[in-house]
Amino acid sequence: MGNSSQPPLKGYNNYGVYLREKFGGRRVFKVIVDAGFTCPNRDGSKGYGGCTYCNVDSFTPELPRSLSAIRAQIEQGIVRARENYDAEKFIIYFQPNTNTYAPLETLRALFDEALSICPEDVVGLAVGTRADCLDDAKIALLESYTHRLMVDLEMGMESMYDATLHQLNRGCSHQDLVGVLKQLEKSPLNLCVHTVFGFPGETHAMMLAYAHEINRFPQIKFVKLHHLHVVAGSIMAAQYKRQPFKLFQLDEYTDFLCEFLPLLRPDIVVQRLFGIADLKLLIAPNWGLKKVRIQTHIDQAIQRRGIRQGSQFVTA
User: Fold this and answer.
1) What angle do CA 87, 92, 96 make, to 5 degrees?
2) Residues 140-183: pLDDT tens digits?
3) Alpha carbon 276 to chain centroid distance?
4) 9-304: CATH homologous superfamily?
5) Per-residue pLDDT averaged across 214-238, rounded?
6) 47-56, 165-174, 236-245, 296-305, range with the lowest pLDDT
7) How far is it, in rounded angstroms, from Cα 271 to Cα 277?
8) Are 32 and 60 in contact (CB under 8 A)?
9) Beta-carbon neighbour count of residue 201 at 10 Å?
């Protein structure tokens, strides 16, 4: 049967609203840390060159790219967030590359150092990684922080189709992700999966099916939804130059989200509806709008059309 709950604010479960409610109305801001990790499909462990669509600089803010010391990144990130966004509390977010791709004691030292900075105002730890770079010991390390912090484990699903993942030089399968999700079924970690829509060869119906796959796992608490970018310095940029392929325009992507969100389980919190890339590196699609105007465009369409997340979700 379909879900009959009241429509969430904005028509979908918005992450900003979730954080304000969780932390008593305080403004919570993510501080991005670049700890200098690489990925197994970059260093030769599983391949070279990384995912074909990826240039890490395209989505990593300039501040963490310009500072090597974690302490300096966090201290300056907190200052900037307080001054520019009136932030009061902070989530330390290890974002670029694969942030569990190191020995356990290296990870422990990095996370402990990061969480020792401004501890009175740090309320969370978020770690972005790949499912094939997790094991029991690393999961236990992350879980050890949950008694005092909100800990988010973000894993890239990207596509649910192995043919696409192979084409992207991903170096892992969808089953790798499924296996870890099953392992974390009763974990205190907040699990987030990251998807990208618009990979060449995937049809509209194939992309909508991502919702049904995510819905299968009640342990998934958050999602990040992105549209595909082509960015300078990526393998895909060279492929696109040789043979351009179809990419979402803003209205097309908005239409897609208005179909996707009703299929998505209503309890899942949406951290992002779209991706942004450094305009100096972005090749396509360039929608010609700043982040806030893209967000407003999508939100207004969702509200105008009466879209409700989970309104077409059917329990098994």
Assistant:
1) 120
2) 999 999 999 999 999 999 999 999 999 999 999 999 999 999 99
3) 12
4) Aldolase class I (3.20.20.70)
5) 97
6) 47-56
7) 17
8) yes
9) 11
Distance CA 211, CA 230 (A): 24
Query: Per the structure block, which two tokens stand in for 58?
Result: 């395209």
In the numeric block, which tokens belong to residue 138? 């690393």
- Cα separation, 103 vs 137, whole angstroms: 10
**Under DSSP, is residue 114 helix (H, G, I), strand (E, B) or coil?**
helix
| CA proximity to 159, closest of 52, 65, 9 | 52
CA 40, CA 30: separation in Å to the nearest integer?
A: 26
Would you state the structure tokens that stand for residue 89, as one six-digit string?
């509390």
What is the spatial distance between Cα 313 and Cα 309, in angstroms, rounded to a whole number? Answer: 8
pTM over 0.70: yes
Residue 193 and residue 173: Cα distance in Å, rounded? Answer: 14
Residue-wise pLDDT for 41-98, tens only, equals 999 999 999 999 998 765 555 655 455 789 999 999 999 999 999 999 999 999 999 9
Amino acid found at 177:
L
Task: Round to whole Å and give the CA distance between 27 and 229.
Answer: 29
Q: What is the DSSP letter of 153?
A: E
User: Cα(first)–Cα(last) distance of the chain, in Å?
Assistant: 8
